[in-house]
Structure formats: structure tokens, C-alpha cells
Amino acid sequence: MSDIKIKITDRDGVLHEVDAPTDMNMNLMEVVRSYELAPEGTIGICGGMAMCASCQCYIKSDHSLPEKSDDEEAMLAEAFFVEDNSRLGCQIHMTDALDGLEVELAPEEA
Ligand code: FES
């Protein structure tokens, strides 16, 4: 069992510091869901396939993240509220390198 600490600011601007396991093959969207930091049905709509952007978040810390896949790039090109530091949470897998990551959930589309 190994955990990393992540700071997540929810859509109401409330900061949550949570432990995320690195040994369960979880992604950031699943971590947000597991702590219920966004209402059911507003995040992870496509199930983590990089096809909905409901898991968009802004990366606030300067961790170096894996490059975006073509699917992630394409989805972010169509999404709302996209900033330079936008990523799809479902494409960010929890690894030891992300200890201390700080993210903010993007506003809900729709
Ligand atoms: S959950 Fe749909 S793009 Fe991430």
C-alpha cells in the first residue's frame, strides 16, 4: 500500500487534501469520484475514455506530467473553459512522481 498526497480544489473553490493510492491503477478522475468531490453524474461521464471532458482539471503545481495522447488533445480542443494547464483527469494515472500534485476541477460544462 503506498499513497501520495494530492490537493484538489473542487468546483465550489474548497480545497481538499486527499491520499491517493498508487497501487490500484487509479486515475485522477477516479480519485475525485472516490472522495465524492464532485456530484455523481458531473464527472467521469464517459468512464475515462477521453471522450467527455467532464473530468477536466487545471494543474496548479509544476509536476511534469506524461504527454497528452492524441485523444486527450482532441477532446480538450473541443471542451469549454480550457486553459493552458488543462488536462483530462482520467488520463492522469496516480504514480509516486505525482506526490504533492495540486489541481483544480474545471467548471461543469452544460
Ligand atoms: S472521464 Fe470522460 S474524458 Fe475523462
Order of the strands making up the biggest sheet = 2-1-5-3-4
Computed over alpha carbons, the radius of gyration is 13 Å
Number of strands: 5
Structural class based on helices, strands and sheet pairing? alpha+beta
The protein's oligomeric status is: single chain
The small molecules bound here are: FE2/S2 (inorganic) cluster
Low-confidence stretches: none
- Gap from first CA to last CA: 38 Å
How many structural domains does the protein architecture include? 1
What's the architecture in CATH terms? Roll
Mean pLDDT: 96
Strand content: 15-25%
CATH topology-level name:
Ubiquitin-like (UB roll)
Structure description:
- The chain has one domain: Ubiquitin-like (UB roll).
- Helix content is 15%, strand content 24%.
- It is built from two helices and five strands; from the N terminus they run ββαβαββ.
- Strands 2-1-5-3-4 form a five-stranded mixed sheet, with helices on one face.
- The model has no long low-confidence stretch (mean pLDDT 96).
- It binds FE2/S2 (inorganic) cluster.
- The site of FE2/S2 (inorganic) cluster has 15 residues, from loops.
- FE2/S2 (inorganic) cluster binds next to loops.
- One of its GO terms (biological process) is P450-containing electron transport chain.
- Residues 4-109 form the 2Fe-2S ferredoxin-type domain.
- It comes from Flagellimonas hymeniacidonis.
- InterPro entries: 2Fe-2S_ferredoxin-like_sf (IPR036010), 2Fe-2S_ferredoxin-type (IPR001041), Adrenodoxin-like (IPR001055), Beta-grasp_dom_sf (IPR012675).
